[in-house]
Request: fold
Amino acid sequence: MNTEHVNEETLQAYAMDRRSCDAVVADHIEHCPACKIAADNYRLLFSLTANLPDAAPEFDTVQLVMPMLKERKWFDWVLAGIVAVTVAATFFLFGAYGKYLLGNVSGLPLYLALAVTAGVILLQVIKMMKNFRQSCNLITGGLSA
Reply:
């Protein structure tokens, strides 16, 4: 007889249908007190939960989610506007320093700084698009279910 206990998935499979289990595993569960108790507990749990009604929310999830999306969209535009105004004000106030910096820095450090900046911006845009797609999939998956 096997001295090691079977894993939880095997115990659950045995509790749902003994005939689907391997004969050696079934023999171990029938002769091992700990595994037999665990399988009996799973069988009892499965029989009790089989009679429960399917869970269904008592509210309309579409009506709850859609206003939040519209509100979030508005917030994103306000945030983008604030960032744009801040960048424009920065260039207006410190534009002369930028021209001096760009005019007096040699090629390689300037190109490296620009390449790193472009890379960071690109990675952030990719991350933002991935998060947006995941959010859309979650919303559409929840609505179609």
